[in-house]
Each structure stands twice: as structure tokens, then as C-alpha cells.
Amino acid sequence: MNEHKNVQCGTRHLAAEFFIATGGGLIAFVFAVYLIALGGLALNYGIPDYTVAFSLAAILLWGGAIEAYGKNRWAILVLAALLALFVLYTSYDIASRFFDISWDGMAYHQGAILLLLEGWNPLTEPIPKHVAYATQIEAYPKAVWLIAAAIQQIDGDLEAAKGLHFVLAAAAFFLLFGAFLKLHRLSAWAAGLLSVTAALNPVVIYQSLSFYVDGLLGSLFTALIALSILLLYKFRWRLVVIFSMVLILLINTKQTGILYGALGCLTLLAMLWTRNGPWLQVSGATLASGLLAIGLFGYSPYVTNTLEHGHPLYPIFGGERADFELGHRPPGLDEISGPERLFHSTLAKPTLAPKQEPELKIPFLTNSDEIKIFRGADIRLGGWGVLFSGGLMLGIIGLLLVWAAPKGYRSVGLVLLFGVIFTVLANPEAWWARFAPQWVLVPLIVGGLLLSSSRRSVRIFGFSLAATLLMNGLLVAFSYYPFQANYTMQQKDHLEKIAATETLILVDFGDFPANRVRLENAGIRYVELRRRLPCRKPHRIFPYQGSFCFAGVR
């Protein structure tokens, strides 16, 4: 009996190390791409053509973080590297088959990537004055754009670079699954359920085929939690290195990453303190990582913003600050506090329109119209999914049952729970789901505690909670991906028909000049006109904005 138990523990340990090696390898690859691309700019060389090829070596280098020895060590290393390569190939292949039809993706994210590919160096050069959305491109973090530009250099396919969403979601899943497998009070199926549900964050899903960065922030935050759990289980410097990589990427993905990263690190230190862990060593490492993330990796924009505009978080703060959310908040939300906005949005029916007043919905009940809202990348009210309010209600009830969780798990879990809640409440714009994707994790943490209980009835409740949140993510996916596939097919068919005419067209791109890449890839000859088109009835060419005339037609 004991021998059988030891075999099971050994097998589970090897599985945990395999998933940790895979997830860490993906993080190491992404960070290496960022590091080499940024280094090329620092040397005024541009983004090197070999960036991706050299970065693949990081997957193998990370293999040293596993704890299996002898033949198992090399088997895990090779299999983890092969799985990581499969994830990379599949992610970028899927992304290349879809058009980004999101507003911000077409407006300035793609534009920033193309500027980098055309030779703009944000470390040494001001942004060209004619560029649309110049303020956002110059003042926002650039890690994702640099990584996307390096990926685009492989075969010239800009759309493929969106695959970073799938890569980081997979990394978050692998790391979290490996971490949960280390906790023997959680069964393997419970560990898998919790990890899949966390990775299938609704914000991650409905931004995964766009160049939006909020879903990436959500996946990185989940990976940060997974690594925190691993550091609690056993302190290893190699895990601290990967933790630092995630922290640097988080801070340089979006400006709110500074807030979430700082509070996430404080939460980790608090958890280490409750377990008498090496909080002093970790605090020094995270502080150093934060300073590097802002002062070195984030020289543009954090240092340049401070020098030119008086605040590292310009244009959100500083003398020339702009309230980008003004006009986007639904009626009534301007006059209330951040927590009140979050409350209204959490319980509201999902909406896209900024002028629509919050309308409360009954938890657990939904319909096809609500589910259809999740076809786009920018859901406003209720953007965490149609079943999230029900899942949160179960989470609140579940708090009454966490006493049944193991004492050590309970103390750490509650610190983690309130740490995540604090990261959300600290952002006054957390009502907009894409600004607080980690809000979804709050009831899931409660579910994890309940699933670790020895009481069957408590585990059943925890399963119901986690299953509700999983179904919530799946409903978003079932709405989002078929719509995106159909829309992309229509768009490609439209461009093919224009190309088949072999006629020069006159184009007004509107706010989306980066869409010229789609015309070039389709083989369409065009002339861009930044004025009113000469024909009486221009044809629509892209979503939201963009029209054209055939040359010579009035």
C-alpha cells in the first residue's frame, strides 16, 4: 500500500515538473524575444532578424528548473520542449487565420508594430508627427509590440503575432496545473479543473484574436499567482528568475501592470510570511525586478514620460493628463466611487454601448442576446461573462465553508484572495472588465480552497463553483470564435473580389492606416487619400471605418 502511494506521488511529482518546465519554457521564450528585440533597439541596430530563432534556446535553458534526475530529467526536458514548440506553432498558426477587427487593435496597436518594423526606435527618436494615435503609441508600454514585431519578421504575417494570447494563456495553465499538482490535498482532476478555468478567463478569450493587451495582462497575472504558489511550496532561485520575467513583462504590457505587479508581490510576501518562508530574499529579488522593469526595460515609456511629461504614467497622470474613460463610462458611473462602479458592472447585463445604463441581471440566468455580446474585444458592463455574477455569489457563500479547508491552505488562500481583491479595488476603472481581468479569479480561489477539503459535501460545493466559472468561460468562447471566423471569412472574400478586378483603388483608411497591410497581402493596388474620396458612393472596406473608390469612378 505504501509502495503504491509512493509510486503515485512520484508520478504526480514528475507530471508537475513536466508542466512547470513547459509553462516556464514558454515564459522564458517570450521574455527572450522581448530582451533581444529591446537590446537591438538599445544598440540602435533595430529588431534583429534572428530574434525568434535565438529565443527558442531559452526553452531548453529553462529545463534546469526541474527536479527530476537521471533518465527522467532528460525525458521531461525533451518532452516539455516539444510541447512548448507545439504550443508556439499552433498558437501563431491559429492567430494567422483571423483578422483583428477590434478598434484599438486596428487603430494603434497594429500601427505601433508597423512603426517598429519600419525602423522607428522609441528609445532614441520622437514619434513621427503624422502618426495617428501618436500619444498612445509614444506613452504606452511597448513589450507586446516589440514581441509582435519580432514574430512578424518570421514570414511577414502581422496577424500571426496575435498568437501571443494563446502562448501566455497556455503558460498560465501549465504553471498553475504544475503548482496545484504539488499540493497533495488537491486531487489531479480538481487541479486540472481549476487551472483550465483560470486560463479560460473571459477577457483572455474575447481578446485572443486581437492586438488588445488586457487579456495578456490577465494571463501574466495568473502566471504570477502560479509561481507564488510554487515558491511557497519550495523556494528555488530559478523560480524567482521566472517570477521576475513575468513581473517585468507584466509591467511593460500595460501601465496598470505596475499596480497589479506591486500588489501581487506584496501578496506573495504576505503569504511567505504566514508560512515563515524566505520573504526577505524574495522581497529583494522582486524589488530589483521592479526597478529593472521600470528603469531599464521600461525606459520607454516610463523614464521618457517622466522626463517629457512629468510623470511615468502619463497620459493617465501628469500635467497633461487625459481622462480616456470619460465618455466611455455608462450613465451614472461618473458620479460614484470605483468600488460602486465595480458592484454595478459585476451585477449588470453585458453591454457594449457606452451610453447604455446599467441594468441588473438575475444571477445564473442568461439568454442568447446576452451571450452574443461577447463577440467583440471590448465588453463594458458585465464583461466577465454571463454566469460570473452567479459564480461570485457562490464564492461569497463558499467563504462560510472555508473553515473546512486544511489550516495551512486556508491561511495562505485567504491572503491570496484578499490580495487579488485589493488589486481590483485599487483601480477606480475596474468596472470595465478588461481593466481588471483578475476579478474572475476571486471566486475561483474560494473554489480551490473548498476542493482541498476532506469533507465530500464541501468538495461538491467547490466543484459546482468551479464548474460554473468554467461554463462561464466556455459560453464566451462559443460566442466569440464562430463569429470571428465568419467575419474574417467575409472580409477575406471581400478583399479577394476587389483584387480580382485588378483595378487601382483610392482608399481612405480613416483611423486605421495600418490596414494597408491587408490590401498589400491581398495583392490590391491602392492609393491612400487623406481627404474626401472623389466618388459619390464610396464602398466600405473595413469594419467601423475605411472606404474606397475604384480609380476613375465618380
Question: How would you portray this structure in words?
Answer:
- There is one protein chain.
- With 554 residues, the chain is mostly helical.
- Helices cover 60% and strands 2% of the residues.
- The protein contains 22 helices and 4 strands.
- The chain has helices at residues 2-42, 51-55, 57-61, 71-96, 103-117, 134-139, 143-152, 164-182, 188-199, 202-205, 214-233, 237-251, 256-274, 279-297, 299-309, 338-346, 368-372, 388-398, 407-425, 441-451, 456-500, 516-521, and strands spanning 505-508, 526-528, 539-540, 547-550.
- It has a 4-stranded mixed sheet with strand order 2-1-4-3, with no helix packed on it.
- Strand 1, helix 22 (516-521) and strand 2 form a beta-alpha-beta unit.
- Helix 8 runs parallel beside helix 11.
- The longest helix has 45 residues, at 456-500.
- The chain is globular.
- Mean pLDDT is 92; it is low at 1-8.
